Amino acid sequence: MLAVVFAFCFLGTISQAQINITVLGTFNYPGATETTSTIPYGINDQGDVVGTFTDAALKDFAFVRYADGTFSPLITEPNDTANYTQGRGINNSGTICGNYMGSDGQLHGFFRIGETFSEYDYPDAPTTEVFGINDAGDFVGSFGFETAFVSIRGTARPVLPQFFG
């Protein structure tokens, strides 16, 4: 599977939006074949893309495709016991976030700064996925049965749906 990076431009009002889609580039993780997949999930202002590469044995690894077109080695969270590490977001300082499968059979979030990993679990939740991180270190994800959360300045809270009456 070929990864494609898009740019979206929205013109007009919400009710009459015209959407122009521009393909910025296509790529596969090196060595990719028709039995593997490369999926981009996040991009920073420098053009570095983080994503997930699935090999022919269905093992998932995170990766970074740098703006200059080079790739990081495949990334596995050290506590990943199921060959399931997914890269989901990257900020401008290069901090990567994502999730991995632990020995308990549950998903856990992670952050990678340089070569150092730190795990993140939403408080008292059986599962956690981290999907994006900004330059201030605030991040978003989901826990439990797909409940969204946001962590701002170190305080995590669920994002509950708003109903209008």
Provide structural commentary.
- This protein is mainly β and 165 residues long.
- Helices cover 0% and strands 50% of the residues.
- The protein has strands at 3-11, 18-27, 37-43, 49-54, 60-65, 85-90, 96-101, 107-113, 116-120, 128-133, 139-143, 147-152, 155-158.
- Strand 10 (128-133) and strand 11 form a beta hairpin.
- The chain is globular.
- The termini are far apart.
- Residues 6-13 have low confidence and may be disordered.
What's the short story on this structure?
This protein has 165 residues and is mainly beta.
Order of strands side by side in the largest beta sheet? 6-7-8-9
Mean pLDDT score, rounded? 89
End-to-end C-alpha gap: 44 Å
List how many beta strands DSSP finds.
Answer: 13
What class would the helix/strand composition place it in? Answer: mainly beta
Keywords, separated by commas or semicolons:
mainly beta; 13 strands; four-stranded antiparallel β-sheet; 165 residues; 50% strand
